[in-house]
TrEMBL record:
Protein name in the entry: Type 1 glutamine amidotransferase
UniProt xrefs under Pfam families: DJ-1_PfpI
Chain ranges of the DJ-1/PfpI domain: 6-167
Family statement drawn from the similarity comment of this UniProt entry: Belongs to the peptidase C56 family.
Provenance organism: Natronobacillus azotifigens
NCBIfam families assigned to the protein according to its UniProt record, in alphabetical order: PfpI
């Protein structure tokens, strides 16, 4: 289990893209990682776009980011909510400053944009936010997964296998 003793934050809010949250969480747990679902309120049931629930393990205020090795931001409409929390933006900035893996897929790029960390970074996302990404200073690529240092980005659910593999590979190298 190459990710044993690795701790990951997976951000959650209502209307997350079900597969973009659960596929990475389950795959990383299979590799031995501990993944905490972190939302505004601990123990709250958040519901994905297609009705799959996710109960948060911790609240934003309960988290000490220094105890985590990486962070995941799922897509769906949740990123538009998540980027409004100062705590979430502080988490992303911390992981960026520490050069720890940040995974983002689909609309999750909005969170990284709001955190102000994409200037000069190579990324991908859903094509729907390509302009947002480039306006934030990123260089956008239409590829299943783009790894630029510690930032791992992907487009959409069909790209989940190479995205999660790239994220796990980066985390295993830390």
């Amino acid at each position: 289990m190459r990710l044993k003793n690795k701790k990951i934050i997976a951000l959650v809010d209502h209307d997350f893209e079900d597969l973009e949250l659960w596929y990475p969480v389950l795959r990383l747990q299979e590799e031995g990682a501990m993944v905490d679902l972190v939302g505004e309120i601990a123990g709250k049931k958040y519901v994905g776009k297609y009705g799959v629930p996710a109960n948060s393990d911790r609240s934003f205020s309960d988290v000490n980011v220094d105890k985590y090795d990486a962070i995941l931001v799922p897509g769906g409409w949740a990123p538009d909510k998540l980027r409004r929390y100062p705590e979430v933006l502080a988490f992303i900035k911390h992981f960026d400053q520490m050069k720890k893996p940040i995974g983002q897929i689909c609309h999750a790029g909005w969170v990284l944009i709001s955190a102000g960390i994409l200037d000069g970074v190579r990324v991908t996302s859903t094509p729907g936010i390509k302009d947002d990404m480039t306006n934030a200073g990123a260089t956008w690529h239409d590829e299943p997964v783009v790894v630029d240092g510690h930032i791992i980005s992907s487009r959409r659910p069909p790209d989940l296998p190479p995205y999660v593999k790239a994220f796990a590979d980066k985390l295993a190298d830390e």
